[in-house]
């Protein structure tokens, strides 16, 4: 679509088609995203995401901050899954330092990350239901998530921007009542999942609006380097926790849910299934967790040996990665962030061609993007 026609929003083009801007301030864009959509009646001819409304120069800022100071900054990227941002960054620094992480700290990282995965998927399925016009599941989601945020607040002191991980471990240990609180939360979550599936996933209207809508084939997904539940709904069983195990994930038994059609429906079903698998992992981690230190000893002034490294973890949206270059000083020489939301969003023009405008809203919501990590 030529840039010269961007100013024709809502006006008829020469061939009778209409150009419409969806966003950047629109409830269906899940953040400050602008999508320039060319319509013929209600049919989407083309769509072009326009980014940059939330760019904060994160990667450049990191070059002037010390390594520990950067941890709270990472929380502001995928702000729904902040633990994963902290984890992938800390792993990059620890890798260059050759730092050995205490076993208990590794278990704590896994537990908090999987709880964060549950919280993220709750928002993903709740907001997707609302995109299709179902408001009740959305309110249910936030009722359940409130219990989870209470647990996060107890452990980390925060409900969203956690600043919980440290280079070498974690900030503090879990309280004695933590396992009891987890089981109480899981009882609520398990009941919610059953009710949610009955109310929405088995709802004929939901099925009609999501089945075979926005189909992403495995070939296209892999060609675009898509990852996470978004790709796994198309069939590929690609999950870094299994394909390239890190931390202590190789000690747990869990499944990697996949779909068959790669449509909006399968993406929702996969995320619901992943919440159940996260519960399995957390229960095993609590049962296996050893006593001991929660943080390795590090110098007060942290200087990272010169070198470069790429590390990645499996976030709720896919592979989030950090390419880190150190020149031996107290700040990164260069830091590059691999954002799964950015990569997955790049498939949007392929998914929406020939669909109706109402389906466009559903497809965009099913990708589950977070604009904080798309723009950075």
Protein described:
The chain starts with 17 loop residues before the first strand and ends with a helix. It folds into 2 domains: 3-50, no CATH class; 58-375, Cytochrome-c3 Hydrogenase, chain B (Orthogonal Bundle), CATH 1.10.645. It has helices at 58-62, 67-74, 82-97, 103-131, 136-156, 178-201, 204-210, 218-223, 229-232, 240-243, 264-288, 340-345, 348-352, 357-367, 371-375; strands at 18-22, 34-40, 43-50, 165-166, 169-170, 307-315, 318-326, 334-338. 45% of the residues are buried. The chain is an alpha+beta fold. The chain is globular, with a radius of gyration of 21 Å.
Summarize the structure.
With 376 residues, this protein is α+β, with helices and mostly antiparallel strands. The protein has helices at 58-62, 67-74, 82-97, 103-131, 136-156, 178-201, 204-210, 218-223, 229-232, 240-243, 264-288, 340-345, 348-352, 357-367, 371-375, and strands at residues 18-22, 34-40, 43-50, 165-166, 169-170, 307-315, 318-326, 334-338. The chain folds into two domains: 3-50, no CATH class; 58-375, Cytochrome-c3 Hydrogenase, chain B (Orthogonal Bundle).
Notable characteristics:
single chain, 376 residues, alpha+beta, Cytochrome-c3 Hydrogenase, chain B, three-stranded antiparallel sheet, 8 strands, 12% strand
Q: Any chance you could write out the topology, listing elements then pairs?
A:
Elements: E1 18-22, E2 34-40, E3 43-50, H1 58-62, H2 67-74, H3 82-97, H4 103-131, H5 136-156, E4 165-166, E5 169-170, H6 178-201, H7 204-210, H8 218-223, H9 229-232, H10 240-243, H11 264-288, E6 307-315, E7 318-326, E8 334-338, H12 340-345, H13 348-352, H14 357-367, H15 371-375
